[in-house]
Specification:
six-stranded mixed sheet, mainly beta
């Protein structure tokens, strides 16, 4: 599972090699805390996946790793998903970075939410 940490005002996500290959993405994703507009813990992280996978790996309600894109009218979005199994997770909404939302499946999402809000 990827390592998610908050250090020096930045959320660092370090993907494992298999996750990086599945996501068709580099090994790291860094988001300045100042770019985070909202953080929410959810019971069903797969319920937050939207759009079409481009690029990445996905199987409905099983795995979602990579970029999901879509839009309605002029409102386009680009999300990054890091979900290994159904269950709880964290939705990180951002502004001014390549992804509009980052979806992370975690067994204890409240810990990351508290760390990002602190």
């Amino acid at each position: 599972m990827a390592d998610v940490s908050v250090v020096d005002g930045t959320m660092h996500i370090t993907l494992t090699v298999p996750e990086s290959l599945a996501a068709v993405h580099g090994r790291t994703l860094d988001v300045p805390i100042s770019s985070i507009t909202d953080v929410t813990a959810v019971d069903d992280i797969f319920g937050q996946v939207r759009g079409l996978r481009m690029p990445g790996t996905g199987w409905p309600n099983r795995i979602a790793i990579g970029t999901w894109r879509g839009g309605r009218g002029q409102a386009k979005f680009r999300d990054f998903a890091l979900i290994h199994r159904p269950g709880p997770g964290v939705v990180v909404s951002t502004s001014g970075v390549p992804y509009d939302r980052i979806l992370i499946g975690l067994p204890q999402p409240e810990e990351l939410v508290e760390e990002l809000r602190a």
